[in-house]
């Protein structure tokens, strides 16, 4: 399911890219890459309308027996009370986002309400029709404003409570751009760097990797591509807060690794529709190793970016 932020306020940088982000995820990620049992796929549905309408669609999808990936893009603000995160919805402004925006904890509540006891209990790495389905994966690529950023960076912030909410795995990026011009300069065909890197990695897969992809196996490559795209002095590019990746026990939805599947023998026991979809994806050349290494858990990485272990101190 795809949730966007079509806010009209010019202060909301991320809203300018939400349409292109939603389109590339819906158009380029083949449904067959999702490991939903015996080759079943997922048809992405873009939720439209106000906050209540979007939450209703999330709740309805969560009642189904299949796993659920919810992709959220646009602009997130803490509004005035700073105790909740709101996805700006049209016609949101920074002053009324808490009235017109979509509270992200509503999305988490809708995802977990339909789970039922034990629905998302799953052995780590178990894939197949006999295994319980994985829990939902919430993928975020959002921007925020300077005031909200200061609140989100705190160890006891609403963002941290949101990321650590039980029952839902959260992965993605919060970006506070330096300016609207800098934000637009980092876009490629209107798409933000994180979403483009995410889509390209999911479509191409990881050569030599396992048969399935989890956020943890993709996180470092995606984060490095984002940092390269917005490279420059930290004061010029703004600030990046990488969320996740979630631990293996909370991976959420897993994805087939197209690079591994393309090398399978024709006689392999794989769904023909899955093979056809994955073989259509272009090969992506592997990047050479860099001298700089990302930070360890809780420590800053290159250029002061958060390490792979998360953005907050332990």
Entry summary:
The protein is built from 12 helices and 10 strands. The protein has 314 residues and is an alpha/beta fold. The chain has a single domain, classed as Rossmann fold (3-Layer(aba) Sandwich).
Describe the structure.
With about 325 residues, the protein is of the alpha/beta class. It has a single domain, classed as Rossmann fold. About 35% of the residues lie in helices and about 15% in strands. The chain contains twelve helices and ten strands. Strands 1, 2, 3, 4, 5, 6, 7 and 9 form an eight-stranded mixed sheet that branches. A hairpin with an 8-residue loop joins strand 3 and strand 4. Helix 1 packs parallel to helix 8, helix 2 runs parallel beside helix 4 and helix 8 packs across helix 9.
Helix-strand layout with pairing:
Blueprint: E1 2-3, H1 15-28, E2 46-47, H2 51-62, E3 69-77, E4 86-87, H3 97-100, E5 102-103, H4 104-113, E6 137-143, H5 146-152, H6 158-163, E7 169-176, H7 180-185, H8 193-204, E8 212-213, H9 215-229, H10 234-237, E9 239-243, E10 255-256, H11 258-262, H12 272-279
Parallel strand pairs: 1-2, 1-3, 3-6, 6-7
Antiparallel strand pairs: 3-4, 4-5, 7-9, 8-10
Helix pairs in contact: 1-8, 2-4, 8-9
The amount of helix comes to 25-40%
Distance between the termini: 32 Å
Number of helical elements: 12
Structural shape: globular
Beta-strand segment tally = 10
Strand content: 5-15%
For the report, how would you describe the main beta sheet?
A: 8 strands, mixed
Radius of gyration: 19 Å
Q: List SSEs in N-to-C order.
A: EHEHEEHEHEHHEHHEHHEEHH
- Global structural class: alpha/beta
Instruction: Examine the coordinates and then state which fold CATH places here, giving the name of the CATH topology.
Output: Rossmann fold
Which blocks of ≥5 consecutive residues have pLDDT under 50? 116-131, 283-310
Mean pLDDT: 72
CATH architecture classification: 3-Layer(aba) Sandwich
**CATH class division:** Alpha Beta
User: Number of folding domains?
Assistant: 1
Region (Disordered): 276-314
Biased composition (Basic and acidic residues): 277-305
